[in-house]
Design brief:
Helix content: 25-40%
Number of strands: 13
Order of helices and strands: HEHEHHEEEHEEHEEHEEEE
Bound molecules: ribulose-5-phosphate
CATH topology of the largest domain: Rossmann fold
Distance between the termini: 32 Å
CATH class of the largest domain: Alpha Beta
Strand content: 25-35%
Number of helices: 7
Strand order of the largest sheet: 2-1-3-6-12-13
Oligomer: single chain
Shape: globular
Radius of gyration: 17 Å
Length: 225
């Protein structure tokens, strides 16, 4: 199977996971990226079984609307029963690196408001140690150089993601050569740098369920202690 086919198997598995719990007043949290897009496309068939969605990016909102799924502002909704999203890396604790698509801040906000975070990913995303994928950090533009210098002090090789402006009007620095032994501590440490909006470590609020697509089918994993 190709990587895209594996992504589609986990999108289908996520539909099976949420379908029994959908109610006419349910508003779902929807992530960003190619795996989330496949999930959105499959969700279209269920559009009459739930109320609508909160999106973690303008791109996902547009795709949802294209399928006649109503998109709500998070402030109108409060909490969401499920947040379904992909990841760039995920470990056994279901801590993740996210933000390859530059949507990390809104992803983290919707994830924080979710009762259950379902991560959908192909098997290439599973790692024992986070960090081979460059960790994205969203920064206020005027703080970019300062934040980059602070990231160097922490051992990272920061690279400005040229030409990318987030949905929040900010910029992204990717941290290369930055293996992470304690994701919870590093997430908090990075967020404490003045000018950082969010970083792409999702450890304080990791996933509750990982649907991982591999050559032997979809594995359903929950966090190890
Ligand atoms: C976007 C993300 C995505 O979830 C992550 O990049 C995975 O993307 P894909 O499903 O395309 O592999 O965090 O900001």
């Amino acid at each position: 199977m190709t990587q895209d086919e594996l992504k589609d198997t986990v999108a289908a598995a996520a539909i099976d996971e949420i379908r029994p719990h959908l109610a006419r007043n349910s508003v779902l949290g929807i992530g960003t990226g190619s795996t989330a897009n496949l999930f959105i496309d499959r969700l279209a068939a269920l559009r009459d079984d739930f109320k609508g969605a909160v999106a973690s990016s303008e791109a996902s909102a547009e795709r949802l609307r294209g399928h006649d799924i109503e998109v709500f502002e998070l402030n109108e909704v409060g909490s969401v029963p499920f947040y379904i999203d992909g990841a760039d890396e995920v470990n056994a604790h279901l801590h993740m690196i996210k933000g390859g698509g530059a949507a990390l801040t809104r992803e983290k906000i919707v994830a924080a408001c979710s009762e259950r975070f379902i991560c959908i990913a192909d098997a290439s995303k599973r790692v024992t140690r986070l960090g081979a994928f460059p960790l994205p950090v969203e920064v206020i533009p005027m703080a970019r150089s300062y934040v980059a210098r602070e990231l160097v002090k922490l051992g990272a090789d920061p690279v400005y993601r040229q030409g990318v402006v987030t949905d929040n009007g900010n910029q992204i620095i990717d941290c290369f050569d930055f293996m992470i032994d304690d994701p919870l501590a590093m997430e908090a440490r990075l967020n404490a740098i003045v000018g950082v909006v969010t970083n792409g470590l999702f450890a304080a609020r990791g996933a509750d369920v990982l649907l991982l697509g591999g050559s032997n089918g979809v594995e359903r994993l929950t966090p190890t202690e």
